[in-house]
Fold each of these.
Amino acid sequence: MTDAGTPPCPPQARPPQEDDDEVALALASVRQAIRQAEAEAGRAAGAVTLVAVSKTQPAARLEAALAAGQRVFGENRVQEAAAKWPALRARFPDLELHLIGPLQTNKVRDAVALFDVIETVDRPRLATALAAEMAASGRRPRCYLEVNTGEEPQKAGVVPTGLEALLTACRDGYRLPVTGLMAIPPHDEDPALHFALLADLARRHGLAEISMGMSGDFPLAVRFGATHVRVGTAIFGHRPVPAC
Ligand SMILES: *Cc1c(COP(=O)(O)O)cnc(C)c1O
């Protein structure tokens, strides 16, 4: 029997599962590590946004992260994101979705419709297509330019010496809402140099958002000025299917 003044507990959407606890605990520990790195770097608490990378993860783990209050997510494939997120967006209108994988021009329409931030703008042809689609749809997701800080031939991103020209074309030519830079440092190098370079490029070009740092190195990225860290396996565990 409940008191007249006490509302009954809301029914649980689903029974709790093992996954839920694991994801909630891992999320809490990643958030704690971010807070600690912010404090150690003399940065304000909350200066860094956690982008939870949910590519290839099963729905139950996404639900667990959402239940634990996570609202910013990263996906690396447009098609996969389009299958997973529209229904969740209807339930969680405050979601913010980041595209963190390569974008083909033929997927630009879907990407503009779905994402709030497109982190992988790296060439004029893509910028042209994005500008056209933003004009047609009226949606204007924020854009980050992806920088290939290691100048790796097989990797996406504009090389550092090409950044200024691409930025000028995107901002002044195509009038894209460019607000930041993103980088994925080479696997086999000390990421610190790459984080420092990306932060320096962002500062010099007056871009406020800096997306760098993944499961293995996000506290270091925070120390170097990241405003967004992209963390997958440290939150969700290993990906059940390899993501490309
Ligand atoms: C998968 C991915 C991540 C997350 O990597 P983890 O090591 O699982 O944290 C971050 N950024 C990009 C671009 C990715 O594709």
Amino acid sequence: MTASPAAHRAASETGDPFLLTPGPLTTSRSVKAVMVHDWGSRDAEFLRINREVLDRLPAIAHAAATHVTVPVQGSGTFAVEAMLTSLVPPDGEVLVLINGAYGHRAKRILEIARRRTVVHETSEDTPPDLAAVERILAATPSITHVFAVHCETTSGILNPVAEIGALAARHGKSFLLDSMSAFGALPLDANAVHADAIAASSNKCIEGVPGLGFVLCRRDVLAAAKGNATTLVLDLHDQWQAFEKTGQYRFTPPIHVIVAFHQALEEFLAEGGQPGRHARYAGNCKVLVDGMRALGFRTLLPDALQAPIIVTFHMPKDPRFVFQRFYDSLKDRGYVIYPGKLTVADSFRIGCIGRLHREQMEGALAAIREALAEFGMADAAMAA
Ligand SMILES: *Cc1c(COP(=O)(O)O)cnc(C)c1O
């Protein structure tokens, strides 16, 4: 630590600024504390911990009877790429639903893997047009899979995954879901939404540290995926077979990350699992949105489309408001926010997920009020 923090500088249990971002996120001290040990990758205690992690995850999507967890070393995108390239065969064709950066990323993954795609794209503040999706599915029998993003973190929009999954099922297509920023917080029943596979990671709403992605796969779909993979390391079928045969990872596992993920799952269950986590994040989101509106900020999304994960705000038009100064001023007060990633509007984002409670959301609002005062602004209403 270079200097003692000023009295008004908020800090996490470990003295760090709070991360009001889409990830990496603020984690509890106890999650970080379990990482102070070394274990061998064949250590029986580590393998037991890893097995418990893998066994607990499908239940979060009510899929313990149908889906298995295949972990993938790396960030969340590694899991999305593993899911798309292992489950879509070379002659497959994917309808990719896009309303933000993560939909575009999936399309790029498929293009690099030379899988055919059909795109249905809507604006970043607009869910897919289900009637148009239905028309595409009816008119394009060569489509084998449908891909969607649960909460598109680019804007924070909640996409209608149940309706999309129902359309895919009705037309006999396999449904693949990127639930990265929603898994564990938003209700999700893998079978009710007809998801053959769901990709997520250690680091978002489960509040572990970054470094492990995973895909919940229907067992029969995984069993049929042998030979599809375009890379060795991201081959879900091969990774799964290794676990079935030896209980071990094929390549060095991020042991510390997995042990921290196990602790994060304990804390997740102690909070009441998905409903408990959802309640805290929804509370955070409401405090944030109400407080920001009271300060004159406007959300990109109407409340009905807003997931309680991350909120996009329009940049105030007042020339006294300079985003970099705003960002620095909040950082000095112990709160890290995130720039916008939108193409439709100049914006910034504030996250509600991670080890954050009402106290941190109210603290961030107080810091925002102080920053506006610093700029000589009474509020953020569109004065210009
Ligand atoms: C965070 C996120 C990912 C994965 O991002 P990484 O930086 O690779 O962890 C994928 N999809 C969505 C919707 C996300 O929010």
